[in-house]
Design brief:
CATH topology of chain B: Transcription Regulator spoIIAA
CATH architecture of the largest domain in chain A: 4-Layer Sandwich
Strand order of the largest sheet of chain B: 1-2-3-4-5
Structural class of chain B: alpha/beta
Shape of chain A: flat
Radius of gyration of chain B: 12 Å
CATH class of chain B: Alpha Beta
Helix content of chain B: 25-40%
Distance between the termini of chain B: 31 Å
Number of domains of chain B: 1
Oligomer: heterodimer
Largest sheet of chain A: 6 strands, antiparallel
Number of domains of chain A: 8
CATH topology of the largest domain in chain A: Phosphatase 2c, domain 1
CATH superfamily of the largest domain in chain A: PPM-type phosphatase domain
CATH superfamily of chain B: STAS domain
């Protein structure tokens, strides 16, 4: 059922129903509802509460609706109908609320539910609701309240909604806000783009009304450019950056002059979706950007909110927005146009000022050419016709006046252009003002006026630019004189309210009231005023005001016609009001300058001439005395440089007239040539010249050492360049600004020439002093460039002053490629010279002719007084001879030390070569001894071998064998020298590397060193031989050269470097196969004891061989010792060992007991057979002890040096020794010997002779046999016998026998490559292990059971029988190691 | 060649007996082999007087394992056990008293 059908609904059958009577319109429609079809039933049956609610609803003028009953049946009143329900009326009546407001049920449903369940009312303000009441989804805002409706029982059965629609208000406010923002103060906006960006930001803040916007501006060619956009991405199809003037493809009509509504459906692309709205705009409104009466300069496109109709209000809003944008751009454009116009005007003004300034400058040169000659004429025509002089005076006076005018104009233009270069310095203003006032005193007097100068000192100085202040005062005073006929002029300086106040008051004609405001205007002249002169430019007071204002001061005038005028200037103290960089310190000079003269002269001219004889006092200017200036320094020549022919000739005439010789050139280039060819005493140059100008000329002269001191006086026409000249004062000696007085120029020329001559005189004196120095003298600038040298410098290094400056790297530095170290050394020293304040160093340098010099340099840093530049002055002394002498001395000393420390020839020689290598920084030094050997014996610092040397070098070295000794000779690109070596002639060869010269000094040094070396080698050789002899002798007396197996010995003599002492050990193989064992200890130590020992040892040995009975040997030795000095009291242990049975027979002559340790660790001392030391009781029979050494037991014999310690019983030492043997009883005997020596060594090492002898029984078996199978049985026999000595269980011995037999069989089988192949079998028994090794010279094959089954079985057997078997095949044979556990 | 005495004989029951005296090694194993071969049939090899037997001799014994019996001194028993020959042939240990 549709709403519009409601009209055709049930007829007004129930119209009479009074419940709806409150409203005719709605009531009728409600009555027509078929209530019986609703849960409420016919109205007749409605409860009273419902009826009441309905009548309240209908009678209210507020917009309301209500819902009642289980389906929340919908009612509304007339206000609601028109305001909110729209096209849903009357369809909505009597329907469930959920159906009526289906589209917003998600918003309001929960609220209603809340009211129904809780009975509490709701309140919502301006809630956005999208209603479908007008045929489209509409953006609406409602403020509403839901309140509960109760039935007759008080139950909540319905709700009443009081609602006011606020759509218009909300949207209206929103739009107003945008318009207000757009119109907000755009005063900061400057450019069109800034303006547009501002508008865009405002538009962007209202995305609901302006989902997107595009601002296009027309270009001159009829196209349009996108200037800004909101809500749409750049490059979107609807937002092309450019729109053509015509063309169908464009989304927007460029040439629209009226607002156009555009359906976006018809454009190829939909509009962009935008934040607040879920759907894109359907339409856009294009509005031209237009101001009344002008063609549009662009257009604004606004994508329209699809949830509002584009009604009048909406379109109006968009048009207003466009209006704002249009107004903004127009105003921006006009602002820019104004700005441009202002800039153009300012530019015009600048151009005018510049032109004005330039023209004024140009007056200066002709003025000079007028004034100069006039002055000359006046001097020359002093006696001429007074009329002529009078006319000359007129010319001169007007020249002065013109000059003053030009200067004033220039001051103005400078101030205007901001180029007034003021230098404010602290000035005693009262005094300065008084001085300036005094200048006018003569003129005031002559005018018959009173002059009251009242200038008491101020409390503090005032910062003024003296030149400017001068102009201020001169102008005011000149003015006062000009306009005052009677009365007086008063100048006053006071301090008032913390400011300096200067008043210049006159009793003159005064200024009328109407003229007064324009008094200080430029070029304004007071008309018809009575004055002494009608001359006047009208710029004087204007300039005064400008100048005072530059000082941060003020000037005012009070005046009354016919009474007088008072000018009052106030100036602040301090510098706070001045530009920071313009305040300078006080300078000491007079206040009154040349500027004053024209003012006073002019003033005087206004006044009646003085009676004859009375001369007006012109202010004297500086100290230039024309007479003195005319007298030139003798014979001085001046170079005049000016491109203006008149000026050039004038200057030349002036100079010549003053007695100078004059040369003229027309420009800077000519001047430079002339000066270089023949330096004049002075250069007078114009600044402005074509080509090289005056400033360039000065710079060029100053950069050339030959012309650096030529004085230059610059003439400047352009006052604007005064500052540049100021900055260039270090370059130019003096300058004058045109127009200048001839006398002044001459004075300056003269002064500068005198100064230069004085300077020259100093310079010549300085040069003479420096040149007279014996030592070389030099001056370096900050960069290290040598800028001055003296004669000695040239003599030492060969470099002449003509080559100055010598910039680093200086040409005397050693070549970096050939001598990198020397170059580096000089570089480092030079670095110190630049950095340090003073210092000295000695470095190698090259004379200009290439020869090597050593120079000692001493330097100091000084500040040049004139420029403050830092300079380095230094002296330099040739110390080459000293250097080489020292070098020789130290080289010889170092070689001597080395040779004296060397312990052998090879060490001495290689050390000497290293010494030479370091001394010369040689690439390589080698020595070849050409002795009897087949090949020469080479020693080289780089470790080369003879055969590795180039054949050419080998030949050269061998060839030098016959060369005279100790005479250096070039050989194979190096230097060689031959000297005597103990083994034959030796050639020493130095390779200094590429291009290194070997100088005469080097040769001398080499000869000396070689001679020294030869002597040293001979001495070392001699010592070597002596030592070898001594050692051979000592070793001969010490002990046997070969020990029987099973023995180990140690010997430590107490006295170094002897290798022998009083102790000895000996083993003597006896004819019956037994072994004699002797350990003895003579009294004392050192060489004497050793000599005794040697005799006793030999005797004992002989006695043993003769009769192997230890007791008898010792008895015989008693007799022998008795006959030898120092042999008495020697202790000796003498024993005879049967190495097969282990039986030991022994006798001891007072010797410490032998220590025996059995395999199980049992320790015993061999204490039997002991008697007195030798020769104590000669002839007394000696006892003998016997002991059978168990298998694998260890015997240790020693001398008391091992065990004897001060303040300790010998037993302690013996006990320690026994424990050490016990610990090491499982080690091999050699290891054990070391172990014992280490364990017992005192902290500082042994301080007595120590002899030590260790034997383990049985001795290891060691058999070497030919690799032949016939040897197997005998070897086995020997092994079997040895195993028996080891006292092993039978089956263990058998296992070892079989395993060893297998290893030997393998060795025989595989080791027989050549007939000389041998097999070595070694077996050694320790405490609980037995080691067997079989070493052959062949290689075992891997087991191949199939080919030779029993061989593989052999290895298996070995592994089965022994505890560990390793087979190590090596390149020269195979080693089988086996180990069996035996205890 | 290592000396080795090989004495063939027979027991009272007619069993062939080869009595070996000396050391058996690679130099003389061949002779043992030949002697056993010559004996033919079942043969008792008496090693009582052999105090050295290596893998060469063992190989010979293995090669004849199917027709020999061994009489060995106690000292050779570990060897015979290790090589496994005592598992193949009957071994009688002769001189226990040495242990």
């Amino acid at each position: 059922m549709k709403a519009q059908d409601a009209d055709d609904g049930p007829d007004a059958a129930a119209i009479g129903t009074d419940v709806f009577a409150a409203d005719d319109g709605i009531g009728g429609d409600l009555a027509r509802v078929d209530w019986s079809a609703t849960p409420l039933g016919p109205p007749d049956g409605w409860p009273q509460s419902l009826r009441t609610a309905v009548s309240i609803l209908l009678s209210s003028r507020f917009s309301m609706w209500m819902a009642w009953g289980p389906e929340l049946t919908f009612f509304c009143n007339s206000a609601y109908r028109t305001g909110t329900l729209g096209r849903k009326y009357p369809w909505a009546l009597g329907r469930p609320a959920r159906e009526v407001w289906a589209e917003i049920w998600s918003d309001i449903g929960p609220r209603i539910e809340g009211v129904m369940t809780t009975g509490r009312a709701t309140w919502d303000e301006a809630l956005l609701l999208f209603l479908e009441r007008s045929g489209y989804t509409e953006e609406t805002y409602h403020t509403f309240s839901y309140s509960p409706l109760h039935d007759d029982d008080g139950q909540v059965v319905g709700m009443l909604c009081v609602v006011s629609e606020e759509t218009e208000r909300v949207i209206g406010e929103r739009r107003m806000a945008t318009l207000r923002d757009l119109g907000s103060d755009p005063s900061v906006v400057r450019t069109e783009q800034q303006m547009l960006d501002f508008s865009a930001r405002q538009m962007d803040r209202n995305p609901r009304d302006l989902p997107f916007t595009l601002t296009y501006l027309h270009e001159d060619d009829g196209t349009a450019r996108l200037a800004c956009s909101t809500g749409i991405a750049p490059g979107h199809a609807l937002a092309p950056a450019f729109l053509p003037a015509t063309g169908q493809a464009a989304p927007w009509p460029v040439s629209a002059t009226e607002p156009v509504l555009i359906d976006l459906d018809t454009t190829p692309h939909a509009g962009p979706r935008r934040g607040d709205w879920s759907l894109p705009p359907l339409q856009a409104l294009l509005v031209p950007l237009q101001q009344q009466g002008v063609a549009p300069h662009g257009f604004l496109v606004v994508g329209l909110n699809r949830f509002r109709t584009p009604d009048e209000s909406y379109r109006g809003f968009v048009e207003l927005v466009a209006g704002h944008v249009a107004a903004g751009t127009v105003s921006a454009r006009s602002y820019q146009a104004q700005q441009r116009r202002a800039d153009e005007l300012a530019e015009l003004d600048r151009a005018k000022t510049a032109f004005f300034s330039n023209i004024s400058h140009e007056f200066r040169t002709p003025l000079t050419l007028i004034m100069g000659p006039v002055e000359e004429l006046r001097h020359r025509l002093e006696d001429a016709d007074p009329l002529i002089l009078e006319e000359l005076d007129v010319i001169r006076r007007n020249g002065v006046r013109l000059g003053k005018l030009v200067n004033s104009l220039l001051d103005f233009s400078r101030i205007e252009a901001g180029r007034a270069q003021a230098h404010y310095e602290p000035v005693d203003l009262a005094r300065a003002t008084a001085e300036l006032a005094s200048v006018f005193r003569s003129a005031v007097d002559r005018a018959g006026l009173g002059y009251d100068v009242d200038c008491p000192p101020l409390s503090r100085p005032v910062h003024v630019d003296p030149a400017m202040w001068e102009k201020v005062m001169l102008n005011l005073l000149s003015n006062a004189v000009k306009f005052t006929f009677d009365g007086s002029i008063t100048v006053r300086v006071r301090e008032e309210s913390g400011r300096a106040v200067v008043t210049v008051a006159d009793t003159g004609v005064g200024v009328s009231e109407q003229e007064r405001p324009r008094l200080f205007d430029r070029f304004h002249r007071i008309e018809n005023a009575r004055s002494r002169s009608h001359e006047g430019s009208g710029i004087g007071l204007a300039l005064v005001r400008e100048l005072v204002e530059l000082h941060g001061g003020t000037i005012g005038a009070s005046s009354a016609e016919g009474v007088g005028t008072t000018f009052t200037i106030t100036l602040p103290f301090g510098t706070a009001h001045l530009p920071a960089d313009a305040a300078v310190g006080a300078r000491t000079r007079g206040v009154v300058s040349t500027t004053a003269a024209p003012y006073v002269e002019e003033a005087l001219h206004w006044l009646p001439p003085l009676p004859a004889g009375a001369e007006a006092a012109l202010p004297t200017v500086e100290s230039s005395d024309p007479v003195a200036a005319d007298r030139p320094p003798t014979d001085a020549r001046v170079l005049v440089v000016d491109d203006n022919a008149d000026m050039r000739e004038y200057l030349a005439r002036l100079m010549t007239g003053a007695g100078y010789r004059v040369t003229t050139v027309v420009d800077g280039t000519g001047a430079l040539e002339s000066v270089r060819a023949d330096p004049p005493d002075l250069v007078v140059s114009d600044v402005m010249m074509p080509g090289l100008d005056g400033l360039g000329l000065v710079a060029a002269l100053r950069s050339d050492p030959r012309t650096v001191s030529v004085p230059v006086v610059l003439l400047s026409a352009r006052a604007g360049q005064e500052a540049s000249i100021e900055g260039l004062r270090s370059g130019a000696d003096d300058y004058l600004v045109k127009p200048f007085a001839a006398a002044e120029l001459l004075a300056r020329v003269r002064a500068n020439i005198q100064l230069a001559r004085l300077r020259d005189h100093h310079a010549r004196w300085h040069s003479a002093l420096v040149d007279s120095l014996q030592e070389a003298f030099f001056v370096c600038d900050e960069d290290g460039a040598v800028i001055e040298i003296n004669t000695a410098f040239t003599e030492i290094l060969g470099y002449e002053p003509e080559g100055l400056p010598y910039r680093p790297v200086h040409p005397w530095w050693p070549d970096p490629a050939a001598e990198p170290e020397a170059h580096q050394e000089v570089g480092n020293a030079f670095g110190r010279l630049l950095r340090s304040e003073k210092g000295s160093y000695t470095v190698p340098v090259n004379h200009r002719d290439g020869h090597r010099l050593w120079v000692a340099v001493t330097f100091n840093q000084v500040d040049e007084p004139d420029t403050g530049r830092r300079l380095i002055v230094g002296t330099l002394r040739d110390v080459t001879a000293e250097h080489y002498a020292i070098q020789r001395e130290s080289a010889l000393a170092s070689l001597s030390t080395l040779l004296s420390r060397a312990s052998g020839l090879p060490e001495a020689l290689s050390g000497a070569l290293e010494e030479l290598h370091d001394l010369w920084h040689a690439a390589c030094v080698l020595a070849v001894v050409l002795g009897d050997e087949a090949a020469p014996v080479l020693t080289a610092t780089d470790g080369s071998r003879w055969q590795e040397l180039p054949a050419g070098l080998r030949d050269a070295l061998v060839g030098l064998g016959t060369h005279p000794k100790l005479s250096p000779v070039g050989a194979y690109s190096g230097t060689a020298i031959v000297l005597e070596h103990p083994d034959g002639p030796m050639v020493l060869w130095l390779d200094l590397g590429e291009r290194r010269p070997f100088t005469g000094e080097d040769e001398l040094l080499l000869s000396l060193l070689a001679g020294h070396l030869a002597q040293g080698l001979a001495r070392v050789h001699q010592i070597d031989q002596q030592r070898e002899t001594a050692i051979a002798l000592q070793r001969a007396i010490l002990g046997p050269s070969h020990l029987p197996t099973g023995f180990a010995v140690r010997y430590e003599p107490a006295t170094q470097p002897l290798e022998v002492g009083g102790d000895w050990y000996d083993t003597v193989p006896l004819p019956d196969g037994r072994i004699g064992i002797v350990v003895g200890d003579c009294v004392g130590r050192g060489l004497e004891a050793a000599a005794v020992m040697g005799q006793l040892r030999s005797a004992c040995r002989a006695l043993l061989l003769q009769n192997a009975v230890p007791a008898e040997v010792l008895t015989a030795l008693d007799h022998f010792a008795a006959g030898i000095q120092g042999a008495a009291c020697t202790t000796v242990f003498c024993g005879v060992l049967d190495s097969e049975s282990g039986q030991l027979v022994y006798s001891s002559a007072g010797h410490p007991p032998g220590i025996l340790v059995e395999p199980d660790g049992t320790t015993r001392l061999l204490e039997e057979g002991r008697a007195t030391p030798l020769a104590v009781r000669p002839g007394a029979p000696r006892p003998e002890g016997r002991y059978v050494m168990p298998a694998r037991s260890t015997l240790l014999l020693y001398t008391d040096g091992l065990v004897e310690r001060r303040r300790r019983s010998l037993d302690v030492g013996i006990g320690q020794t026994a424990a050490a043997v016990q610990d090491g009883r499982d080690a091999a005997v050699d290891e054990l010997a070391s172990h014992v020596m280490d364990r017992l060594a005192p902290d500082g090492g042994y301080d007595d002779d120590v002899a030590l002898l260790v034997y383990r029984h049985p001795a290891p078996l060691d058999i070497t046999f030919p690799a032949e199978s016939s040897q197997l049985a005998p070897v086995r026999k020997a092994l079997r016998g040895w195993l028996a000595q080891c006292e092993l269980p039978r089956h263990i011995a058998q296992n070892i026998l079989v395993a060893a037999g297998e290893a030997c069989a393998n060795a025989v089988e595989h080791g027989h490559r050549t007939s000389s192949d041998t097999v070595q079998l070694r077996a050694e028994a320790r405490v609980d292990k037995l080691h067997v090794s079989v070493v052959d010279t062949g290689r075992w094959r891997p087991p191949e059971p199939a080919a030779n089954p029993h061989r593989g079985r052999g290895l298996i057997l070995m592994r089965a029988l022994m505890q560990r078997v390793t087979v190590t095949p090596g390149p020269v044979g195979t080693v089988v190691d086996m180990q069996a556990r035996i205890a | 060649m290592t000396p080795l005495t090989l004495t063939p004989g027979h027991r009272a029951d007619g069993t062939a007996v080869l009595t070996v005296t000396g050391e058996i090694d690679m130099t003389n194993a061949r002779g043992l082999h030949e002697a056993i071969a010559e004996a033919g049939g079942k043969v008792v090899v008496d090693l009582t007087a052999v105090d050295y037997l290596d893998s060469a001799g063992l190989s010979v014994l293995f090669s004849h394992a199917d027709r020999i019996e061994l009489v060995a001194p106690g000292i050779l028993v570990p060897l015979l056990d290790i090589t496994g020959i005592s598992g193949l042939v009957t071994v009688r240990v002769q001189d226990e008293e040495h242990f």
